[in-house]
Every structure is written in structure tokens, then in C-alpha cells.
Amino acid sequence: MTIAILGGYGAVGATAARRLAAHDGNPIRVGGRNLRSASALCEELGENASAHVVDLTDSRSLATFCAGATVVLNCAGPSYRVLDTVALAARAADAHYVDVAGDQPLFRRLDALPPSDRLAVISAGVMPGLTAILPRGLLGDDPARTGIDLHVGGPVRITPVSAQDILLATGPDFGAPLASWRDGEVVQGSVSPQWNVSLPHFGPAVHALPYLTTESADFARHHDIGEHRSYSVYVSERIPTTLATAWAESPDDPTAWAGELAKAATEDLSEHAPRYTILVRRHDLDHQTPPAWRLLQTTDPYRLSGVVAALTVQAVLASKSTGTHPAWRFLDPQEIWTTLADDPLCHTETHGLACTAPELKA
Ligand SMILES: NC(=O)c1ccc[n+]([C@@H]2O[C@H](COP(=O)([O-])OP(=O)(O)OC[C@H]3O[C@@H](n4cnc5c(N)ncnc54)[C@H](OP(=O)(O)O)[C@@H]3O)[C@@H](O)[C@H]2O)c1
Fold first, then answer.
1. What is the pLDDT of residue 289?
2. What's the CATH code of the domain at 178?
3. What is the pLDDT of residue 354?
4. Is 362 part of any domain?
5. pLDDT digits (tens, 9 = 90+) for 13-30
6. What distance in Å separates the CA atoms of residue 7 and residue 37, rounded to the nearest whole number?
7. DSSP character at residue 14
8. Ligand 1 neighbour 5 (Cβ under 6 A)
9. Does the beta carbon of 79 sit less than 6 angstroms from any atom of ligand 1?
């Protein structure tokens, strides 16, 4: 079963390639426009890995890369410009497809295609990805009486390609600032930004800015959750200010600000050690049961996204399903949590759940 990883030596792709190569003996193709970078990684991965020059904007080279693959994993971006280019090439090659990003713009395109007997699992990273998988694993027996609060962020690098995606992720396809999910609908303007607050596990003076992603809203809608609030957390005003300036000054193509955004992240890192935190807190809207929460921290969300992508590829290879799914609906949230709790890249904690042994680190 051949696994073809496009963007296979990038920040996300290299970790996915390493994890998949270590997992079993499946042949792995590592693809991108730079043969030297692909070959260097393949040397490390061993004899089952092969380096390929492929440019996703050249349909012939993309078709050659996908031909004969069992699953194509796309880790090349920017995702919101790539859209369904790689997914359609995988489909034409009769391969399953996994995308580390994609969100609503990709889902809509793939979902509108005629049915296929192959799987497409998208948004299989940290955000999107774990940001709905972890809340899903924390849902109680009565979601309609449950509130879920999600805080995500911290000082970490931003790669130039990811910076472009962050800048492109604006508008209703991606989410709504200051909105929350309440009693079956998105309620605009219902949550306020919190500037200079002390948040457990994030630090003493951070900014928590409400942003309900379409992933969070879909997750809340799917499970009929009573209330869902989601916050992006920043250690300084540099990143939110750069984003606001880019969107205001270059609304047609904010990607020109990618360098500034990456620089803002680097400046945050000159004052803070790298730490990315996902904190999910569940509370009972009737106050009958005490709150429960899960914490996941890592120094590198890119590598963690590569881990999630690799786990998704393994789940796709083991599955008999078909169709297009966001990762949070396809993966088993408890299995993912248990696996990540044992992963050296992650620090995890669970509190307030009547949890069984596998949920706690040995
Ligand atoms: N879900 C999540 O939480 C999450 C987290 C992080 C990143 N992401 C997404 O993952 C994607 C990759 O991000 P990254 O930070 O890993 O970027 P990166 O380090 O720059 O890696 C991008 C990879 O794609 C390759 N690539 C770029 N353009 C290509 C093209 N035209 N044809 C073929 N290969 C191409 C690059 O190699 P060459 O440039 O040498 O071709 C490189 O190997 C982005 O879409 C990003 O938004 C998702």
C-alpha cells in the first residue's frame, strides 16, 4: 500500500513521513519541487522511501506522483489556494485522500462530487483537526445541556506557507469573530475579547480573542451542543494587530503580509519559550455535575499536525468507509487522545472525568 506525501519534507509533511515510515513497511513517496530536500529525508527514512519532484500546479507531474498510490496525503499549501487540486488528482488515480487542512472550501467541493468508493478525510491536523477531535472526546451523555469552552494558541513559529493560510482564512467559510454557538445556532457578537487576562496553562497576561471556526460550529451543530465558545490565545498584540492590519489594508490579497506575520511570531518567541496549548473545558449548563477538562501542550504544532495526519492515513488504510469527512467526524476521539497521551511530542492532562487507565500517562 503506497503512501504518496505531497509536501513531504515540509514542516508538517516531514513528521507525517517519519511517523508513517516508522509505523510499517509501506512504500512512501516524498514529493515536492526540490529533489535535494526530498532525497535528504528519504535517506533518513530508509529503503522504503522514494524522492519525487512534483509541482502541484503542473497537472501531469501531479498525476504521475499520484499514480499507483493507495493514499495521497497532501501537506503542501497554501491550502486555501491549493483547494481541491491534489484531491482531484488523487481521485483520478483511484487513491484515498487525506489533507492536513482544507476546511469548508475543500469540503464543499469534494462533497459535491459524484459518490466514489474512495475516502477523503480533510482538516486532519491540529487546527483544524484536534480542535474538534478533543472536544468531541469530552462530550458527556447530554450534549444539549453541555457547554464546551476551547482555548487554543501560544507562542510558536509560523512558517511562510502557513502564514499565507492564516491570512487567507477570513470570512464566513472559516469562522466568525466574537461569535459563539448557543441553543442550535451561531450567535454573533455574543462573546467579548479578553485582553491581558491570566489563563491557566497559558500564562499571566495573554489575550483571548473569541473566534468560532466553522469547524467548531459544525461540531456543535452535529452533536446538538448547548453552548460552544472558542478563543484564540496570543501572548502579545503582535499577531492580532498584524492580521487586522493585513485584512484592512490588503483585503484582496492579504498573503503579501505573510512575512510580517511570521516575523510577529518570531518576535513573540524572543520573549517566550515555544508552547502551543489546547485547553478544552466541559461544563454542565444546569450545574449538576462538576466541570471536566483536557489539556494538550506541545512545542511544535506543525509536527503535531504531522502526527495527526499520519494517524489519519493509518485509519484510512484500516477503514472500509467511503465518502468525504472532516477528521473530527472520521477519527475515534478516544483512540486519538490515548495515542497522543503516550506521544513524546505532547504533554496531556485530564481532570474531572471518571477516566479509565488508558487516558492517563503511565
Ligand atoms: N491543520 C493544521 O493544524 C495545520 C498546521 C500547520 C500547517 N497546516 C497546513 O499544512 C500545509 C503545509 O504547511 P507547512 O507549514 O508544513 O508548510 P511548509 O513547511 O512550507 O511545507 C510545504 C511543503 O509543500 C511543498 N510545496 C509547496 N508548494 C508546492 C508545489 N507547488 N508543488 C509541490 N509541492 C509544493 C514544499 O516544498 P517546495 O516548496 O520545495 O516545493 C514543502 O515540502 C499548509 O497548507 C498549512 O496551512 C495545517
1. 87
2. 3.30.360
3. 56
4. no
5. 999 999 999 998 899 999
6. 10
7. H
8. no
9. yes
